[in-house]
């Protein structure tokens, strides 16, 4: 039997150091579960520790019959600066108990490492959360960048503060948008191209005009106005809410949302591998510092 080069497994040491044992906080009050991303020192950059903690919190809210609505929010100044590509807690080489049926990525060679990992922690998790049968509201303040978009887009409603902005700058890495590729469904296709080609910040008021955001409110009123909506939804019957969400989610799939993501995910991982073959690493020669600097210029 011929040797499979994919069986040349790789030993990668986990170098991550977590700044907190609680990357996600959970609270229930008056039928509303609040799930709070809790890495404010790193602008709620999403590592795997946070991803699996989010999944556990959502699972907890689904299992709790007292919960009717889930609010997702970020502690501190920003909702989320996106995927963790540069903090001490970047845990790309740490194995976790997976929720999907893909195998462990940590010892896999070549493009398999990223393809398998991102099937689980990015595309797979976001699709899982998008189908939560209970209504979800993203409460967005400050930055909602790249991977942060995915966390907001999986929610049914988005309430944003007037200082919030949305941005997907990953074309700079040679990548055609983040893994949960909803750009052309959240935005008009021509506006989606502008959003990706230029990588500029989209202010909350324009996101509202595009239909990507449901409501824009003053920063000081963000919490109050978000929970007012949540309290109104709590009054609706649980099964009625679940069925309504199911119907609309299936309509999105008929409109091509799932197929779009499958196509984009394949190109996304060709881009990762192409960059590696060019000697620029999986992120096209970019790192956390260069992306932050470029994002500020585009602002």
Overall description:
This protein is α/β, with parallel strands linked by helices and 299 residues long. It has helices at 48-63, 112-130, 147-153, 183-186, 189-198, 204-209, 222-234, 238-254, 257-277, 288-298, and strands spanning 24-29, 32-37, 69-74, 136-140, 143-145, 157-161, 165-167, 202-203, 215-217. It has a six-stranded mixed β-sheet, with helices on both faces. Strand 2, helix 1 (48-63) and strand 3 form a beta-alpha-beta unit. The mean pLDDT is 96.
Summarize the structure.
The chain has about 300 residues and is α/β, with parallel strands linked by helices.
Straight-line N-to-C gap: 56 Å
Shape: globular
Question: How many individual β-strands?
Answer: 9
- Element-level helix/strand string: EEHEHEEHEEHHEHEHHHH
Question: Which stretches of 5+ consecutive residues score pLDDT under 50?
Answer: none
Instruction: Classify the secondary structure makeup into a structural class.
Output: alpha/beta
Residue share in helix: 40-55%
Number of helices: 10
Rg estimate, integer Å:
19 Å
Strand content: 5-15%
Largest pleated sheet: 6 strands, mixed
Strand order of the largest sheet: 1-2-3-4-6-9
Mean pLDDT, nearest integer?
96
């Amino acid at each position: 039997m011929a040797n499979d080069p994919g069986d040349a497994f790789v030993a990668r040491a986990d170098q991550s150091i977590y700044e907190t044992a609680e990357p996600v906080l959970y609270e229930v009050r008056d039928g509303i579960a609040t799930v709070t991303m809790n890495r404010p020192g790193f602008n709620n950059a999403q590592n795997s520790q946070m991803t699996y903690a989010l999944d556990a919190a959502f699972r907890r809210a689904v299992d709790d019959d007292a919960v009717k609505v889930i609010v997702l929010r970020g502690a501190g100044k920003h909702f989320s600066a996106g995927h963790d590509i540069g903090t001490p807690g970047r845990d790309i080489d740490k194995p976790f108990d997976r929720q999907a049926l893909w195998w462990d990525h940590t010892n896999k060679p070549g493009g398999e490492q990223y393809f398998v990992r991102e099937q689980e922690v990015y595309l797979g998790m976001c699709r899982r959360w998008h189908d939560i049968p209970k209504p979800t509201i993203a409460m967005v303040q400050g930055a909602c960048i790249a991977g942060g978009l995915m966390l907001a887009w999986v929610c049914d409603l988005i309430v944003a503060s007037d200082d919030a902005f949305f941005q997907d700058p990953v074309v700079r890495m040679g990548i055609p948008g983040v893994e949960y590729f909803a750009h052309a469904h959240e935005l008009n296709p021509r506006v989606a191209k502008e959003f990706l080609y230029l990588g500029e910040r989209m202010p909350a008021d324009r996101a509202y005009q595009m239909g990507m955001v449901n409501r824009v409110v003053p920063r000081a009123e963000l919490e109050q106005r978000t929970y007012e909506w949540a309290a109104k939804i709590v009054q609706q019957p649980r099964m009625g809410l679940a069925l309504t969400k199911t119907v609309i989610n299936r309509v999105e799939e008929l409109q091509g949302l799932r197929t779009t993501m499958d196509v984009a995910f394949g190109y996304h991982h060709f881009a990762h591998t192409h960059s590696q073959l060019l000697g620029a690493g999986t992120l096209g020669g970019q790192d956390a510092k260069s992306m932050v600097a470029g994002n500020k210029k585009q602002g």
